Amino acid sequence: MKQKITLLAITCYVLAFTGLYAQRKRSNKQIEKLKTEVAAIVENNKKQSQVMVDKIFSFSELGFQEVESSKYLTGILSENGFEIEKSISGIPTAWFATWSNGEGPTIALGSDVDCIPKASQYPGVAYHKPIVEGAPGHGEGHNSGIPMNISSALAVKKIMERENIGGTLLVWPGIAEELVAAKAWYVRDGRFDDIDMCIFTHVGNNLGVSYGPTRGTGLISVEYSFDGEAAHSAGSPWRGKSALDAAELMNIAWNYKREHLHPLKRSHSIFTDAGDQPNVVPSKAAIWFYFRDIKYEGIMEMYAMANDMAKGAALMTGTTMTSKVLGTAWPRYYNKVIAETMYLNIKEVGLPEWSDADQQLAKAVQTEVNSEKTEGLPVKLDELGLPVLEPISGGSDDIGDISWKVPTVTLRYPSNIPGLQGHHWSNAIAMATPIAHKGVVAGAKVEAMTIIDFLLKPDLMQGAWDYFNNEQQKETKYQPMISESDMPPIYLNKDKQDQFRSELEKYYYDETKYDTYLEQLGVEYPTLKN
Ligand SMILES: [Zn+2]
Description:
Layout: H1 2-18, H2 28-44, H3 46-59, H4 67-79, E1 83-86, E2 95-100, E3 106-112, H5 145-163, E4 168-174, H6 183-188, E5 197-204, E6 212-213, E7 218-227, H7 243-258, E8 266-273, E9 284-293, H8 296-317, E10 320-329, E11 333-334, H9 336-349, H10 356-368, H11 399-403, E12 408-414, H12 434-456, H13 458-472, H14 494-505, H15 517-521
Parallel strand pairs: 3-4, 3-5, 5-12
Antiparallel strand pairs: 1-2, 2-4, 6-11, 7-9, 7-10, 8-9
Helix pairs in contact: 2-5, 2-12, 3-4, 3-5, 3-12, 5-12, 7-8, 9-12, 9-13, 12-13
Bound molecules: zinc ion.
Zinc ion binds next to loops.
GO cellular component, one term: cytoplasm
Protein name: Aminobenzoyl-glutamate utilization protein B
GO molecular function: dipeptidase activity; para-aminobenzoyl-glutamate hydrolase activity
């Protein structure tokens, strides 16, 4: 970061004398007028954002398999004058789309795009009804974020061109977020070295933003593989060394450990290889863990304990062990200046107007999954989120790594139903309905207005960096959990996607024939249980 400060200082010095960076000075009144205009452009383009949201929903692609989604989104950006760079950090589905209007800040707009295994679900139907049984589906709502970013970026671009505002917009995808397996690699490979700020967007059920340390954890994702000796399980079992025994013993050891972990820590595992058939002693087996904690040090402590257990399990079974880091996410920390600026725009935009049909669907889904929340969609804005000083455990997102590289916030927008369990078919129900579409339009307006603020008010950008350098990094310094040689596990999910792709293809949204995806699927909105 020192490098960045020096660079920034030199840049400021040089620019102060050349006057290159100077945007034409505009009054607050003029800036407010441009913000009203940019929001109006987003509103006028809502048909396009609906099509994008529905389209990505229909592709239903898992992490690292976002082939159709990436092709479609980069196609739109390219048509609109963005330059596309593909295969970022060696990930075939990752891309960076850049459009520049000359000297000025570079603002990165990120969001995730992958979906959830086995979460296939008809949108607008208030009970479990898979489109393709067992197939992946958008049970996390990641089909909406990049469409939202594109919507705001295209609106801002229009204003920048017309008003001759300098600056660069970068739209980028969080590939394989569910595996937290891309963003730390982007950071490691220097992809965020020259970025001035990042607005990340994530589906939520209110329009909100926060700053400081946030609720949730960071994590390291590790697969332990054991290698043994095969034998006939009945004919000569004494000649076998079971790799599966080793994986099971490691799992048992960790389950005992769990009792003695602090409640803020979370850990979970699945077997990724548990042998082939009972009459062959498994010569290979593997178990995959996520180790989560609210602090980097805590994550690495768990990782070290697990490594010892894996070694112990290998010793006990006479097998050998190797391990591989499959993903990492730093605990997140958001920028105060960006959040406060954004929150003013959130108050300006407000929540969408929900129809009776939207509310009926939301309440029916809440009832269906026994949610504690029963009041449907929100009608009151969330407060600005303050730093979480009493840590609260929970999920992770690898935007954490980027939040320690450049001033970052996550804008949450109201495209889903409150009170659902997450990573579940019920979280897909709203995601190709008017609820998702309206939430995306509201979020895109906030995002576009915030970009205009930061392009035209250099003091804000300076303030964001002051907070980042002096407050955020006062006690904590980022250090990557991946090494130079760790590669993103781009082979993950291939089999799962291939198994369903041809079946899912039949349901890809065709916007040339149907107004909405609901119409294509013949879903009456909302469809409730009798
Ligand atoms: Zn997510």
